[in-house]
Amino acid sequence: MQIREDDLTGKKIADLLWEHLENMYEITPPESVHALDIEALRSPDITFWTAWDGEELVGCGALKELDSKSGEIKSMRTVKAHQRRGVASKILEQIIKEAQRRGYDCLNLETGAIPEFAPARALYTGYGFEYRGPFADYIDDPNSVFMTKKLA
Known about the structure:
The chain is of the alpha+beta class. The chain has four helices and seven strands. The protein has helices spanning 11-27, 38-41, 87-101, 118-126, and strands at residues 2-5, 46-53, 56-67, 70-78, 106-112, 130-132, 144-150. A seven-stranded mixed beta sheet has the order 1-2-3-4-5-7-6, with helices on both faces. It is globular, with a radius of gyration of 14 Å.
């Protein structure tokens, strides 16, 4: 598997991000969906990676800089056919490595509180993320879970 920085111009990634947004709106109340669309992910404060198995896109993830000492994980997604094969772990490891390289003190994330997000929460706790309250512009939301990992 190869993880590479992506410029978000390919059809495969556009299709995966569309599928991601559709799924978020299917399982989460609209006011609780915090997934970014492709244009928002092109922001200069976001670095985006894709995971490939040969020519096949298998997943993606992003790191948003919140300030000079902290970042946020965004748009973690594994292609359905490749779930439970370590794709998310490899992308998460890339994001953590980059956050450490940047000298961040912590890495934050928001994910869902409903059962469909249990695998994501298990992945993050397995990498040392701990539960916390809302951060940045987030507010308390019964459909959201907030997590952080100390890096320094």
